[in-house]
Amino acid sequence: MLSKEGEKRLPRKGGREADKMAKGDELVRYITEQVVKYIELPRDVRRARRMERESWRTRWFGMLPFSFSMWLKSSRSEDRKQKAGR
Known about the structure:
Layout: H1 15-40, H2 43-52, H3 56-61, H4 64-85
Protein name: YqzE family protein
Organism: Paenibacillus enshidis
Pfam family, one: YqzE
């Protein structure tokens, strides 16, 4: 590489790779801390937190899955009533 003055410069040794390594080390440290925190919590506390949390379907899609299941149940019961009346 040539600098503005025309001198030959050597590329930085480990420039971007060193940054990536530092970020990777930080990520590993963070994940390790989170896992250790989770493991150190008593099992009862973990279960209580899990029970308080709403289901993933509700978190992701709101009330749509619930309303859809209610609609299916009502349509099925109406179909049964019509078949019984024939």
